[in-house]
Amino acid sequence: MKNLFLTSSFKDVVPLFTEFESNLQGKTVSFIPTASTVEEVVFYVEAGKKALKDLGLIVEELDVATETLGEITATLKKNDFIYVTGGNTFFLLQELKRTGADKLLLEEIAKGKLYIGESAGAVITSPNISYIQSMDSVKKATNLTNYDALNLVNFYTLPHYNNAPFKKITQQIIADYTDDLKIFPISNCEAIVVQDNVVTSKGIL
What we know:
Blueprint: E1 3-7, H1 14-20, E2 28-32, H2 43-54, E3 58-61, H3 69-78, E4 81-84, H4 89-99, H5 101-110, E5 114-118, H6 120-123, E6 156-158, H7 167-177, E7 183-185, E8 190-195, E9 198-203
C-alpha cells in the first residue's frame, strides 16, 4: 500500500500530518536533507527536523550524496518513516539515481512505509521533474541527463503555490504546463495525501 504525505512546508502542516498519522511516539525517521546541501537558504531543514522531534519521533539523518549504498540501504530499511526535505530537485534526483537510492525508496514505499516529501521531496514523486526548472537550477546537477523521477503519482506537485518568493514562478509554471501536465499546486499550508491510489488534498484554514 502506497502511503505518501506531500507538502511544501512541513512545519506549517503538522496538524494535517497528525490527522493522517497519529501513531508517532518513538517511531524512527530516515531524514534525507540531500536536496538542501547545494542551496544557500536551508532554514526549512532544521524547522522540519524540529517539527518531527516535537511529535516524539526519533530522527536519523541520511545524506544520500555522501553515504555508501550499504549505509543508505540499512538506514532506509530499519527506520519506520522516510522524510525527504526541500532544496534543489535536480541535485536530489541526480544523487538518488547515482547511488541507487531511488530504487530503494520505491521498494520501501511499495511495502507500505510512510514517505513524507517536502517541496523537492514532493516533486520527485512525479513522473518527471522537467516542469520545475524555472524554480530550481538544473546547473546544480551536471550529471543528470534524464529527468524521469520516482513516478509514484500520476500528477506533478507544484509546491509553494502563491507563496513568496515563488508566487510569480508558480503561476508561470501553471500557465506553461497546465495544458500538457496534471499540475497539482499546493501552498505552504496545504498537503497532498496519497493512500494507495486515493489522492486527497488538505489545507489549514
